[in-house]
Amino acid sequence: MAQQALGRVRWGGLEFGPGTPYTVAAVEGLDDLPDIRGEDVERPGQHGDYTGPDWTGARVVQLKLGIRGESPDDLRKLTLALRNATQPQRQPAPLQFLDQDVMVWGKVRKRSLPYDAEQLWRLGDAALEVYCADPYLYGLEEKTAFTSTYSPSAGRTYPLAYGAAPILARNYAFNPSAELGLTDISAYNSSALARVTSDGQSGTASVQITNGSGTTFGGAQYAITPQPAGTTITASAWVKVPGTGTTVFFAFRSASSTLGTASAGTPAAGQWTRVSVQYTVPAGQTCTQVAVAYNSAPGVVWQADAMMAETGVSSPSDYVDGSLPGCTWEGTPHDSPSRRLGAATGVRSYGSAGTSGRLTAVNDGASPAYPVLRLDGPVANPAIEQVTTGGILVLDASLQAGEYLIIDTRTRAVLLMGSSPRRAWVRAGSTWPLLEPGPNELAFRGSALPGDAGQPSLLTVTWRDTSL
């Protein structure tokens, strides 16, 4: 339940507020109305204006923070962690107000970390300005509702059941893409590590490794959930090497001891390449770290990103990170294992499916929400009707069994299999459905494909409560 007290605030891998070394002294711009772009024109020869619709500009949120360290060095550590978490961004990231049940998407545009020698024993302060091109306030919970098409002749049924989500893949590496600085990542064989945000395979950062002097290899080792003897670990990572060395290999470690290694071959130079190996933990041992290393001369600089440590698979799964869509952290974000969940996830809030072909989506915000629609075939000429307010979106296309279409009503993107643009499939005169505040009834209709009369097709609607 939302509360008046601000409580905890999360940005990237850092959390501010009660129980943290960062106190939140003030917030501006969160509940304020952004600047209005009015479409008003003067009434010629009369008093007043002709008034049109009002639109908001971008939202700017300002945070004033206090920093409390245990010592001057600890204060410096906290200051650097805040500085590293507020680097220039390519894309907006979520700024979450956890106890107020609201989030915005933004970029840090200003950062102040003043140095005051008279006050810098254990206490400091900071100020951040977050620019939100999208001014909407969103609920933290992503809601989902689904239904199959209405087709009395085909007798279509619900293909998904309520219940716990199947785990499609699990990553036991704690901070696999260095999103929490270099927490849980340490140097392997006297290397020098640095976190870079200008070049990464996943997320906003990667680890830059400089091989140490007097050695023929170096690397970065990642903490993982301890794996007992007899466990076969499938390890994978993305690397970018200069080509001046030979092979990339993985080392499986327990504290400061190496249990064994496995070669991953020689990747192409100058480009991100995914490499992987398998290794079985020997009898009487427990593996607590996995290192990725590069055989090369001292001083060679290379990069690693997106570490995966899996069990029970014969080949690497698609990369799993708790911050990616469809994934979740099992504990503290960027400091715990993560998993990818199947479609029947029990961590989302499902609306009522209603009768076949209809669903109810409730927007508990105060502004219209832009839903994301997913259509799973087989279905011909699918249509989604916003029954509550009127209007219908019709597609002149067919989806075969196993094909799906993603429709983003905000950007008007229509993507086959989530990547191939199919905007031309939208029939002229269609209306893009919005979810008005309160309950919204949507209807899903379509025709069965020849030979597929008994197979189900599905509409899945995903949204967040939305306000301004």
Please describe what this structure looks like.
With 468 residues, this protein is mainly beta. The chain has 3 domains: 9-138, Elongation Factor Tu (Ef-tu), domain 3, CATH 2.40.30.200; 143-163 and 348-467, Jelly Rolls, CATH 2.60.120; 170-341, Jelly Rolls (Sandwich), CATH 2.60.120. It has 1 helix and 38 strands. The protein has one helix at 72-84; strands at 9-11, 14-16, 22-28, 36-38, 41-42, 49-50, 54-56, 59-68, 93-97, 102-112, 123-132, 137-138, 143-148, 167-171, 185-188, 192-196, 206-210, 217-227, 232-240, 248-254, 257-263, 273-280, 287-295, 301-311, 327-329, 338-341, 349-350, 358-363, 372-376, 379-386, 392-394, 398-399, 404-408, 413-416, 420-421, 438-447, 458-463, 466-467. Strands 2-1-9-10-11-8-3 form a 7-stranded antiparallel sheet. A 7-stranded mixed sheet has the order 27-13-37-29-33-34-35, with no helix packed on it. Strands 15-18-23-20-21 form a 5-stranded antiparallel sheet, with no helix packed on it. A hairpin with a 2-residue loop joins strand 20 (248-254) and strand 21. The two termini are 19 Å apart.
Short description:
The chain is mainly beta. The chain is 3% helix and 45% strand. The protein folds into three domains: 9-138, Elongation Factor Tu (Ef-tu), domain 3 (Beta Barrel), CATH 2.40.30.200; 143-163 and 348-467, Jelly Rolls, CATH 2.60.120; 170-341, Galactose-binding domain-like (Jelly Rolls, Sandwich), CATH 2.60.120.260.
Main attributes of the structure:
468 residues; mainly beta; Elongation Factor Tu (Ef-tu), domain 3; Jelly Rolls; 3 domains; 7-stranded antiparallel sheet; 38 strands
